[in-house]
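Justification of resources, computational component.

The compute hours requested in this renewal are based largely on the per-chain cost of generating structure records like the one below. Each record pairs the submitted sequence with a full structure-token output. That output is archived, and it is also reused by downstream analysis tasks.
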Amino acid sequence: MRRIDKPLLSLGSMVLNNGPEAVQTLAPKRKPKWLRAKLPGGPGYQQLKGILGEHRLHTVCEEAGCPNMGECWARGVATIMILGDTCTRACGFCNVKTGRPAEVDLDEPRRTAEALKLMTEGGGLRHIVITSVNRDELPDGGAGIWAETIRRSHELCPDLSVEVLIPDFEGDADALQKVIDARPEILNHNLETVKRMYPAVRPSAKFDRSVELLRRCKDAGLVTKTGIMVGIGEKDDEVLALMDEVRGNADTDILTIGQYLQPTPNHLPIDRWVHPDTFEMFREAGLERGFKVVESGPMVRSSYHADMQAEALAGDARARASVEAVEKLIDDSRA
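The structure output for this chain reads:
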């Protein structure tokens, strides 16, 4: 029912850009012409859907309603979601369902690796992204399942590069180390938004804790990646400040920036449609600050073009491996 008296409490200052010149509304905003997604379909899409269904695997593409699912699945690229489909957190932007998760499926790492093997047969799939819900009720946050999934995927698919999009494990360093020790090719942990917006967007997370996670993974020698949404209430200068902090404190390699899309009326409202020119400005600013790869555009999501990003960084990885091999030979000769 519509209230006729003044609300007792407003969270508008946490969610919206409440400048004196702004006119804010919670009504749905009409999408601009540059936001158009391809409809799912085609033989590649159907083949991938069949493999995922046969092995009872979840994808964040479906659970979160990703607008790029049609394009990515047609190319044979998907983001597999492990540890079930129910998250223990309730972030203001996310369409993955929340609640009490089912028991951990200990057979999931095996099924995941076998599904990946099928996808790689014939030389189609070269890169996979694996993510998960938050499982804060587990002692290690699910890190053990994470590590086993990465190891089994490497064993069955030795030519496949594995990118992981991990939760923060509530800052548990031992849990994070399990994932690091499994040596994924790319480790991604999304910041999602600027620091000021965390109470509304990620109420169970901490900005500084996430930056520290990225730093630990980079110090361990992994290729690191993070991503944010824009149009959810941040300001442009806050996005640039986030870039400075992520580069200065965590030396992160890859950055993705995309337009926030409100999944349902129960989620945080869209504050603005960010123009493609602004996304290009973000891309140039990120590259100037030292990110090796910056994907910035209205339809960009964390896993968008992940296979291309991995390919672009393959040369750097090979070069580092060659340098390390030479240094080891020199050290051995000195010994």
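The CA atoms of residues 31 and 273 lie 8 Å apart. The beta strands are 58-59, 79-82, 127-132, 161-165, 186-188, 223-230, 254-259, 293-296.
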